[in-house]
Amino acid sequence: MSDYASDTLNDLTPEPTGARRVVVLISGNGSNLQALIDEQTHDRLGGEIVAVISNVADAYGLQRARDAGIDAVVLPHGEYDTREAYDGALIKVIERHEPDLVVLAGFMRILSSRFVQRFHGRMLNIHPSLLPAYRGLNTHAKALADGVAEHGCSVHFVTEELDGGPVAIQAVVNVSGDETETSLKEKVHTREHLIYPIAVKWFLEGRLRLVGETAVLDGTPLPPHGLRLSHADAAEELDEDLDDA
Length: 245
Ligand code: GRF
Prior knowledge:
This protein is an alpha/beta fold. The protein has helices at about 1-10, 30-40, 60-65, 85-95, 115-120, 140-145, 180-205, 230-235; strands at about 20-25, 50-55, 70-75, 100-105, 125, 150-155, 165-175, 210, 215, 220, 225-230. The longest helix is centred in the C-terminal third of the chain and has 24 residues, at about 180-205. The chain is globular and about 50 Å long. 5-O-phosphono-beta-D-ribofuranosylamine binds near residues 127 and 128. Pfam families: Formyl_trans_N. It catalyses: N(1)-(5-phospho-beta-D-ribosyl)glycinamide + (6R)-10-formyltetrahydrofolate = N(2)-formyl-N(1)-(5-phospho-beta-D-ribosyl)glycinamide + (6S)-5,6,7,8-tetrahydrofolate + H(+).
């Protein structure tokens, strides 16, 4: 009886074998993918990107993957009649790579609920705003139109609510008086490239988890906006001149 119990327990808690596996989904440039690849190259990601999948055949991120020796897969959505059919095919391709974590890095598709549920608790996204502000598209233009003093980006677990899942980490940028959409986007991108690798590493090391509706770091529930890096904190990390803010 006790043997049976301990065998059962062992089945439930397999020893970790090998590096944690990451599949990254992209649709375009892939600068966030590049930030992750760079960390991996320096052995700082806490796992291995085993495949990059794009729904767009000429996404530049695919080239970044190939240059890094990572399997680059194209799965064009135009070849499927429905979102459900596409997402079903995508699930199959992803699962072939047996990922511990699915990373959305500029993957410009609305996800079906089946897809979201399949990777529940092990799928992250990066969004260019300080969530919950400015969900959806054109976040920089909206922030400028509102005249906000602070903008930024957030890494969050993916749930069925668009850009609404629990946030793990976000980074703030100060919006300057002469800011344009282009300059703001550029500033936010530098923060994205800083925080996405951090969140991925936390997850792969088992430090970051989704518990119910809450992102938990090192056993401590995070506030709704996650761990927040101020403009100054991020600038210091990035060796930026604070006067340029
Ligand atoms: C980023 O701004 C990210 O926040 C959003 O899509 C964009 C992807 O950029 N989800 P890149 O392809 O990583 O350069």
